[in-house]
Each structure stands twice: as C-alpha cells, then as structure tokens.
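Try this one yourself first.
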C-alpha cells in the first residue's frame, strides 16, 4: 500500500547571481536547480543521486529554507509543501521567524563531520542546542534525552562532556545524527553523510540510520553520489543531472534497470569486485559536463547523450512514466 506524501516539491528553481565588472553588478546567474519536482512519502528513503555540482545539496538546503538567509541574493521559486497533522504548509513563503516552528520537523545531517560541529561546545551542548530553539523541554528532560540519544547512536552518556576534537570522524557523524534526532523530526535530509568517512565506517553509519528510521518512522532524503550506497539504503532513487531530475523509480529497478541514457552511463561506471559480473556494455559519455552558467537549451544532457536528436534542443523533456512507478525525462526511451 502506498503511503501518503509528507513533502511535495514542485518546479523548484534556485539561481545564484554572478557579480562582476567595475561596479560588481550582476553579469550572469547560475541555475543550480532548474525546475525539479518530486514527492517524499511517509517512512521512505528517497535517494537523490548525481555527479558533483549537479545541485543535489542545493535542493536539500532549499527545502529547509536556509539558502535565502545564508545567501540573500539567491533567487528561489517553486513550491515546497510540508504535510503534517495540522495541514499543509508552503515552506518557501515563510519568514525567518515563521519557519522556526517547522525547523524541528525537518532536520539535516551534514556532509563533513569535522566542520558541522561547533568545536567550542561540548557534545552535550551540541545535541541540546536544537532542543533549546525548537522545544519547550525543561533542563532535566533535555539532559535525560541527551544521554538517551547518545546511547541510541552507539556512544556513552559520559561522553557528553567531551569536545568534538576528541572523537573520530565516524563518532562525530553519530553525534550529528543524535543532534538531528533531538527535536523528534519527521524528515531527515542527509547531505552526503558518509562521503567523508572510511568505507568500513560508512557501513556502520548507514546501518545505524536504517535502524533509527525503523524505530522512529523517519522519512529520509538521502543525498549522495555513491550509487552503491544509495541503492543499499533507498526505497526509491531520483537521478539528477545539471540541476534537473532525469529519472525516478524504485531503488532496485533504477539501479539494475536504468532507463535514461545518463542513468545508464552513471551506473555502468560503478566498479564491481567481480569482473565476471560486470555488464559488458559500458556507456562512455563524450565531452565534459556543461557549466550551469551556460546550460544547453532543451535537454541539458543532449550535448553528451549517445541517442540525442536535433529536436532535443527545442524543449526540456518532462518526466514521463515508462513503467509503473518508473519515470524518465526522455521521449526516445521506454
């Protein structure tokens, strides 16, 4: 049975101005996110995957509405609708004060466990900080919850008095996860949470996230470029290229039977330990990824696509259902 959507993103666009010239005026703009739409279902993990620079992390930051406060010149349009028991809320329209009410429901785990934790605060203070802003929990309950959360992520309560520099990278990311869980969120946006960790530690953190998801019924947007990690954790996968979503479908289906030419190329490059298991058909893309400053007209992938036609320059192809629950933005595949 399909679960209801908890978050709906429609035609999300994020443009960053480029300043230059004698008076540092706006000379161009970077289309970091170029009209993407997707749904996040209650209790699922949606893997958002693509090459570096395709706009994955920008999507996550736009959803929790921190971009326009950290980068005042950014232009964000579209809709990000959060659905709760109290009704539907359009997050992009909220002011800094109004969105604080909803920040506790959507928390983020950041990529770098070394820079995302305040080095001047103890672990206990780091985990307590979101509770101070987003809950009305008394001091005693906050301290009890800090100890409980540390135990949940595989650390000890006594370690709450230590500082981040006293922990390894994997332990720091566990602290980041505990901080994200402090406000009882409904949605976790994990922005490449294991890319800075050793492979053995990556598996531990991924397994921890899966256990916590089941226990707390969390909904996760998992942003990454490592396809094997994404396939392991994700219920569904959305593939991004140059600011646009080009394919969405069941995690295993997209991983093992991709439809879009870019998805096929991306997945054919995944290294396999057993060469006998590798598909002999290897997709080699021509050219380099275009700059978002001068994105090709029509389909952004057409300049590198092995099946591109002249008509591909005319219009941006919409996501169309090719199989039940499996969509792709290309009229020439099925």
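Now uncover the answer:
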């Amino acid at each position: 049975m399909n679960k209801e959507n908890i978050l709906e993103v429609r035609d999300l666009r994020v443009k960053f101005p480029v300043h230059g010239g004698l008076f540092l005026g706006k000379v161009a703009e970077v289309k970091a996110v170029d009209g993407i739409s997707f749904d996040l279902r209650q209790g699922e993990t949606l893997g958002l995957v693509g090459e570096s620079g395709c706009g994955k992390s920008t999507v996550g930051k736009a959803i929790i509405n921190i971009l326009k406060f950290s980068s005042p010149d950014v232009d964000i349009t579209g809709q990000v609708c959060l659905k709760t028991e109290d009704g539907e809320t359009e997050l992009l329209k909220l002011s800094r004060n109004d969105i604080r009410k909803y920040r506790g429901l959507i928390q983020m785990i950041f990529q770098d466990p070394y820079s995302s934790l305040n080095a001047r605060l103890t672990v206990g203070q780091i985990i307590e900080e979101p509770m101070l802003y987003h809950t009305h929990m008394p001091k005693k309950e906050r301290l009890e919850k800090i100890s409980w959360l540390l135990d949940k992520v595989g650390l000890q309560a006594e370690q709450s008095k230590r500082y981040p520099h006293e922990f390894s990278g994997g332990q720091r990311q566990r602290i980041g996860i505990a901080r994200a869980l402090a406000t009882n969120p409904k949605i976790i946006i994990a922005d490449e949470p294991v890319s800075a960790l050793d492979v053995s530690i990556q598996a531990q953190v991924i397994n921890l996230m899966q256990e916590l998801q089941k226990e707390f019924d969390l909904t996760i947007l998992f942003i990454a470029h490592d396809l094997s990690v994404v396939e392991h954790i994700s219920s569904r996968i959305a593939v991004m290229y140059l600011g646009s979503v080009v394919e969405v479908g069941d995690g295993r289906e997209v991983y093992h039977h991709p439809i879009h030419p870019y998805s096929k190329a991306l997945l054919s490059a995944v290294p396999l330990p057993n060469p006998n298991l590798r598909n002999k058909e290897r997709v080699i893309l021509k050219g380099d990824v275009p700059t978002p400053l001068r994105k090709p007209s029509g389909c952004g992938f057409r300049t590198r696509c092995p099946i591109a036609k002249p008509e591909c320059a005319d219009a941006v192809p919409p996501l169309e259902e090719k199989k039940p629950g499996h969509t792709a933005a290309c009229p020439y595949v099925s």
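Discussion: The chain has a mean pLDDT of 89. Residues 113 and 173 are 5 Å apart (CA to CA).
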